[in-house]
Write a structure and sequence with these properties.
This protein has 612 residues and is of the alpha+beta class. The protein is built from 16 helices and 30 strands. Helices cover 26% and strands 29% of the residues.
């Protein structure tokens, strides 16, 4: 077994992995960015290493920085969690090649073959797993998309090879959208997954999203741990996950589970993973979907999933511990027939978002109150404590509430009780939205599809829920920030010298002495990127400014200075909270200045474009 594991992630999943390590008597190492230096996963770990600035590409996604931190800590394994580098085959390969460090996950070759969707489709097709009609090779030319549309009809899904969770996927409803959507999908693939290859699929308009949890060891054993129903989604992002699915008969769930096992075995896959399927809903059905229902392979997630907790609650199997043991060479010690599903579980993603405002993410704030629920059947995965500042540089999910009941009805009632108990003040969350869903007829009857939230739910009901149960959401971080003073010391411990930096909030600045003959005092260093007092780029153009509504990174600029634009035209594409956001003109005019460039990081309120 390993001595020390570095967790190459942050937040609740990092703490989740560390807890599994602690139960196995394994030491833990955290990595953190400058934005996360006070975060919960840093507090929880035995030791922690700074891997760079807030921008993920310069810290959590920096291969060499993460591996170097493992070397410094003398860690003998790396667990990637989910997101960031978890499905990066190149990084996995580097870890596998690093002397004395084991990768806790599937091999880089398996990740490459299943992580790239066209290769995965070929493997599944050969294993007799049903696949959605589509291409098995990357597509680069808009004419290829048009030819596919002529053959299979519209709508068409253009998907990034390395994509997942709806990122890197664009839907083409007719031929006029082909060029723009193909370019957008390629751009998202490059930005999020460092891979601009895309492929095509027939777009199923109202399916259910069913996924199967699998574990596979290095001795040829493959087990599936039942399915999860992730059909409640918003813009392809899962919101509530549950298991087992109330929409499937036992015969259909067995067919889907065995298909997942076949496909994974054919890929020579090891460790934990999830095989995702789309199941065609039958409108007006009376009872669950039977064994003749159509289901199609969607993709394999070659990592632990956010919603792995659901499966843990209904099987009693600690999936993260299994990951670690499999990576250490241990054999799975149970047969497929030993896997029993007990009761029903649901996971609620507690996102720092205002559901009534188009799920807009919070831009800052402090957890003035943080009082999570408890009681029988209630589990909380988080990395928070009262008084923490909200870190907005990454994902908006701050916690996961997981509830178990003897059956689905009890699970729903217990979930309502737990959500009522969950008290958070200082930031907005989607807890009111979750409470609404647990009383929603479509969800309660389990007849919803992946399109229900986007196309059918009355948005005014979300606004009413937010008004009724929203509570104190704070000022979104708009208040004045407390002055922070950094002090540097050299200390000696057992004969070894260390340079130590201490940060004190609310303290006066420390004079550092004269730096020239005129008696002037040394000034404090400017923040990275220059002084914060200059307000960003100097505005020279005249007219109305178009400002960033949230913190993020500029992915693309759609206009040039001098262009005439109409109301609704896209000016800039901004990536924030792992989603691509079009910044549009509120009125027509002429572009007199573009104040940003592709790749720039911007804060809320920064000027992007000037229109006259």
């Amino acid at each position: 077994m390993f001595r020390k594991v570095l967790v190459a992630n942050r937040g609740e999943i990092a703490v989740r992995v560390m807890r599994a390590c602690e139960e196995l008597n394994i030491g833990t190492v955290a990595v953190y960015s400058e934005a996360d230096k006070d975060s919960g996963h840093v507090r929880y770990a035995d030791e922690a290493y700074n891997v760079g600035p807030a921008r993920a590409a310069d810290s959590y996604l920096d291969h060499e920085a993460v591996i170097e931190a493992a070397r410094k800590a003398d860690a003998d394994a790396i667990h990637p969690g989910y997101g960031f580098l978890a499905e990066n085959a190149e990084f996995a390969g580097k870890v596998q090649e690093a002397e004395g460090i084991t990768w806790i996950g599937p091999s880089s070759s398996a990740m490459e073959s299943l992580g790239e969707k066209t290769k995965a489709r070929k493997i599944m097709q050969e294993a007799d797993v049903p696949i959605v009609p589509g291409t098995t090779d990357p597509v680069t030319d808009p004419e290829e998309v048009k030819e596919f549309g002529e053959k299979h009809g519209y709508p068409i899904a253009i998907k990034a090879e390395g994509g997942g969770g709806g990122r890197g996927m664009k839907v083409v409803w007719d031929e006029s959208e082909v060029e723009d959507q193909l370019e957008s999908a390629k751009r998202e693939g490059e930005a999020y997954f460092d891979n601009d290859s895309v492929y095509l699929e027939r777009y199923l308009e109202k399916p259910r999203h069913i996924e199967v949890q699998i574990v596979a060891d290095q001795h040829g054993n493959v087990r599936h741990l039942g399915e999860r129903d992730c059909s409640l989604q918003r813009r392809h992002q899962k919101v509530i996950e549950e298991g087992p699915s109330a929409a499937l008969t036992d015969e259909l769930r067995e067919k889907i589970g065995e298909a997942a096992r076949r496909g994974v075995a054919a890929a020579d896959y090891t460790n934990a993973g999830t095989v995702e399927f789309l199941v065609e809903e039958e409108p007006g059905r009376d009872g669950p979907l039977g064994p003749d229902a159509n289901f199609f392979f969607l993709e394999v997630n070659t990592r632990i999933q956010v919603e792995h907790t659901v499966t843990e609650q209904i099987t009693g199997i600690d999936i993260v511990k299994r990951q670690i043991r499999i990576a250490a060479g241990e054999e799975i010690d149970f047969d497929q027939d030993d896997v029993e599903i007990d009761g029903h579980a649901m996971e609620f993603r507690i996102n720092a978002e205002n559901a009534a405002n188009d799920f807009a993410p919070a831009t800052g704030g402090t957890l003035e109150t943080y009082d999570p629920p408890g009681g029988i059947g209630v589990r909380l995965d988080d990395a928070l404590r009262q008084g923490d500042e909200l870190v907005t540089d990454y994902d908006s999910m701050i916690a996961k509430l997981v509830v178990w009941g003897e059956d689905r009805d009890e699970c729903i009632e217990r979930s309502l009780r737990a959500l009522r108990e969950y008290e958070i003040a200082g930031i907005p969350t989607i807890i009111p939205f979750h409470r609404l869903m647990l009383t929603d007829e479509e969800f309660v009857q389990s007849t919803h599809t992946t399109k229900y939230l986007d196309e059918e739910l009355d948005e005014s009901r979300i606004e009413e829920a937010q008004e009724q149960w929203g509570g104190d959401i704070g000022d979104g971080g708009a208040g004045d920030e407390e002055e922070a003073v950094e002090r540097e010391f050299t200390v000696e411990v057992n004969g070894k010298r260390f340079e130590v930096e201490l940060e004190e909030h609310g303290a006066p600045a420390i004079p550092t002495g004269e730096v020239d003959g005129g008696g002037s005092m040394a000034s404090r260093p400017e923040p990275a990127g220059g002084s914060s007092s200059d307000g960003g780029a100097e505005l020279e153009g005249e007219g109305e400014t178009v400002d960033a509504e949230m913190q993020g990174t500029i992915l693309d600029i759609e206009v040039e200075e001098g262009d005439e634009v109409a109301a609704g035209d896209v000016l800039v594409v901004l990536e924030a909270m792992k989603m691509e956001n079009d910044i549009v003109a509120s009125r027509g005019g002429t572009v007199t200045q573009i104040a940003v460039a592709e790749g720039d990081s911007v804060d809320m309120g920064d000027t992007l474009v000037v229109l006259e």
